[in-house]
Every structure is written in C-alpha cells, then in structure tokens.
Amino acid sequence: MFTKYDTKTMIQDALLSAANLPPILIVEDEPKLGLLLVDYLQAAGYNTHLIANGSDVLDYVRQYPPALILLDLMLPNVDGMTLCREIRAFSDVPIMMVTAKTEEIDRLSGLDIGADDYICKPYSPREVVARVKVILKRCYQSPRTTAPTEQGLQLDESQFQVRYHNIVLDLTAAEFRLLKTLISHAGQVLTRESLLDNIYDDYRVVTDRTVDSHIKNLRRKLEIFDTEKIFIRSVYGLGYRWEG
Fold first, then answer.
1. Annotation: CATH topology of 8-139
2. What does DSSP assign to residue 195?
3. Do 8-139 and 153-242 agree at the fold level?
4. 3-state percent breakdown (helix, strand, coil) of the chain, nearest 5
5. Its pTM surpasses 0.70
6. CB atoms within 10 A of CB 178
7. In CATH terms, is domain 153-242 a member of 1.20.1440.60?
8. pLDDT (tens digit, 9 = 90+) per residue, 150-199?
9. Are 120 and 100 in contact (CB under 8 A)?
10. For residue 27, what are the β-bridge partners?
11. What are the two backbone dihedrals, phi and then psi, of residue 40, each rounded to the nearest 5 degrees?
C-alpha cells in the first residue's frame, strides 16, 4: 500500500468554517490577476497564499498542504503542466487549472495528468469562487464508505479510494464519481452525456471527449487490480459499460 500526502482527513472537520481551512494556493504570475483571485476568495471566507514562480510551488505544497490549488499553466521556470504531474506523484490535493490556453487538446492534457477542473481566461472571478466551493464540498465531505460491490470492490468516499482484494487505489474526485456511476449501473450501457451529468453538477461546458479522457485514466489505474480483466467495456457509438 502506498502513502501520499493527503489533506482530506485534516480538514474535513473544518468545513463548517471556510476560514479554518488550509489556504487555497494560487499559482499565478500576473500580479493583477493573482491579487484579484486573492480578494475574491478572501471575501468568500477562504484563506489564500499566492505564488508567482513555478519553482517555488512544490516545496510549499509539501511543507504546507493546501486545501486546493489554482494553477496557471504559463509560469516562469516550471510550467503548470509539469507542476501538476509532479504534485500528483505525492498528493491528491484538488487542482484547478487556470489558463489562457483554450484549445481542447490543452483541456484534455490537463485532465490526463490529474487536474480536477479547468477554467480559461478571461474568466469571471465569481465563477472561479463558485467552482472552488463545489470542488471543496465534493472533496472534503463527511466520511462515508459504501458496502462492497458484487465484484469485491469497496468505495471510500471520504478518501476517494477504491479497495479490491486488499489493494488500495487513489482516484481523483472526477474519476471516483465516474467509477461509482458505472458500478451502480453495472451491465448497463451509459452514454457519455449521462456520465458527464454525474461527474459534474455545476453546468460547466465540456465535451464528450472529457469522459473519454477520464475513462482512459481510470482504466489505467484499475490495471493495478488485474491486468487481464476488462473492468470498463466500450460500446461503439453508445458509451461505456461496467463489467467488473
């Protein structure tokens, strides 16, 4: 069983007061935009910490695990994609990428390496705050563990983990909700649209390929359980089916 930095346990009890949360880390090299996010998030009751240089991020995250990271992609010294990939090697902290890159390939690349959300510039600071609230609510809800499924999987909603034959697998929030939806409709073909409705409930604009990206990541992670077993079956022209 592997161990990662995990801030979920330490802040679940602090959800009643946003000000008691560890800070939201804002990584933004444009001073006006960074300070604007600081103002809006602090007005919403959150603590914040602003970093403008990519090379300073990893040490801070290791030493002071934040509640969430707002991560710009275009940064001096170390870019946001690289930072996201390296953070995911030791932490499951929610990451929302904030960037001027609007092409779909950039959105999918961000999801592929473990980002939980993606918002493009120019953006509304109010929308950023709204998305932060949604992510924190999802990621740090009260502990709840589901009963084992017929296939022997056990879903832990407090840690976004799935257990199978004494093996523990950490998932992102989106991957966990996707897996839960598939398992709860085992044997049924679910369309990409219906899966998107269960992954996101904040009416963001995403494409069907977003689901494909999450499915790809989820399949890769599930291989740790059984490299020969097909857990998620693609149904051409329709969607996906959980076979377990």
1. Rossmann fold (3.40.50)
2. H
3. no
4. 40, 20, 40
5. no
6. 24
7. no
8. 456 788 877 778 887 778 888 888 888 888 888 888 888 888 888 877 77
9. yes
10. 51, 71
11. -70, -40
Sheet order of strands, 167-170 included: 153-156, 161-164, 167-170
- The DSSP output letter for 5 is B
For residue 155, give the H/E element and its range.
Answer: strand 153-156
Domain ranges of the chain: 8-139, 153-242
pLDDT, tens only, 107-158 = 556 667 778 888 888 888 898 998 888 888 776 654 444 444 445 678 887 7
How far apart are alpha carbons 130 and 22 in whole angstroms? Answer: 18
* 35 residue type, one letter: L
Q: Is the dihedral of CA 52, 55, 61, 64 positive or negative?
A: negative
- Give CA–CA dist 140/145, Å, rounded: 13
Q: Which amino acid is at 13?
A: D
* Nearest by Cα to 239 from 215, 222, 207: 215
Contact yes or no for 93/65 (Cβ under 8 A): yes
Give CA separation, 68 vs 48, 133, 139, in Å. Answer: 10, 10, 10
Residue type, 181: T
Q: Residue 54 carries which side chain, given as an amino acid letter?
A: G
Please name the residue ranges forming H helices in the chain.
8-11, 31-43, 57-63, 80-88, 104-112, 125-139, 173-184, 192-199, 208-222
* Amino acid code (one letter) for 174: A
